Structure prediction request, 558 residues.
Amino acid sequence: MAQMKFMCDAERCIDCNGCVTACKNANDVEWGIQRRRVVTLNDGEPTEVSISVACMHCDDAPCMAVCPTDCFYKTDDGIVLHDKDLCIGCGYCLYACPFGAPQFPKQNAFGERGKMDKCTFCAGGPADSKEEEYEKYGANRIAEGKLPLCAEMCSTKALLAGDAQTVADIFRQRVVQRGHEDGAWSEVNRQGPDTAAARMDNLAYDATRQG
Amino acid sequence: MSLFRHVCIVLLMTLLTLGVGSQAVAQSADPGREISTSVGAADADTWRQVRSGEVDANYRDSRHDSNYNLINAAGQTWREIRNHWVTPFGLIAIGAMIVMIALFYVIFGRKNLDERPTGRKLFRWSALERTLHWSVASLFIILALSGLNILYGKYVFRSLFGDAVWGAMISASKVSHNYLGPLFGILLLIILAKFFKHNLPKKHDLAWFKKGGGLVGKGHPDAGFANAGEKVWYWLLATAGVAVIISGLVLNFPNFDQSRDTMMWANVIHAVAALGLTAVALGHIYIGTIGTEGSLEGMKTGYVDEVWAKEHHNLWYEEVKDQAVDAEQLDTPAAGEDERPAPSQPG
Prediction:
């Protein structure tokens, strides 16, 4: 069985928010809820970097561990889904999640938050009919053999979604091409034509060649 | 004119050639040149900052209300405290209390009165005090049960009853907890204010502790209107109870935009204090009901037997013993059980 994962190649993300819009469009989520967000660190500085974040469908998911109603479950594909019929809107998953994935439509007195909503990896959720599923959780593209729309529509292919092994292979290939010592996550050494720096290439180079 | 045009064309050609030339250089993928224009990527300092959860002026998030950093490790700390410490030790505290009470009851049994009750009664709790007590007590029990269900229910009831029943159960727990909690808070503060005078520590309380409250064996240490054990319960409610109320309100009103970290810590304080109080409340319930002869009567009718008063609250008994009335007298409507005789108000 596949282990579904997202991977955002920070070197490629151009902060276009196409993934955010694609997600909104595919899942028709409630007003005020945005399952995917783009974070830009050091905005305007030479070290500026952008990363698209949503539910990371963790192996050891904190939301699952702290949920008082036990409404979370993992599909065979490693996708973390939740049952909105069981959710009581306590907000514990929101406390526990390191990625800020769980969101609530309301934030009212007496802990009235409504049902939690988060990225489903475009895999829907538990419901009796397709209509109900779409209403509650949004698209179930996985059932149609398609990947999440955010990744499919990413203009620079920064956001990858799919089986962890495949995603890792694609990223590894990119890293090898770029010549980074430790992937896209390190600072580019800008000095000297020699050594590691000389073996590096950049986004433009990577984008012109397949793989 | 034609010369000028010629010069222009030559210049343009030169520029174009230069342009094509530089483009050719770029396409030849000179690593050094490319590095100078590549995306910088975040350095170690940036990742340290991400880890710390802090957000600086150059942080952008495309979600309108989000002030989360990229990664928030604080939630993991909360998860560990809640799941690895609060959950098991809360169960141990409450379980140990139940076992201790059961053992105590089996070994020592009920604390009976040394003398036979005379049937002469002393007025102890007014109707208002009893109403307050039972309101707070009922709310406490509802909140304790719903709270325990929120913390432990999923390990028991989901597999036992199935999703439909469990969903209704846990939803009812959350709603009752959230709406009755503030009411409990208000009533607890009123009852704390009402019983404040009775529960000021006195010198003889130390002696009471030394004798273990006279819980085991014969003999009764000195006690006023409230004995030292009751005072401990009072001050636990006045400290841990108030902590439960405040932390509960922090959790219950997310509309004031308090941060997630504030709510996580409020949750830990709330759970620890509430579980502790629940464990101690079991002791209070035991002593007040099956554990001691004649105690429940006081909170039920407002009157206690003079023998009970003499044995359990001797100092208070000395103050009010001349106001004792016959039980038969209380049954007549003229006695007006809700009116406390004026001089009986103790210290």
About this structure: The radius of gyration of chain A is 19 Å. Chain A has eight helices and six strands. Residues 188-211 of chain A have pLDDT under 50 and may be disordered.
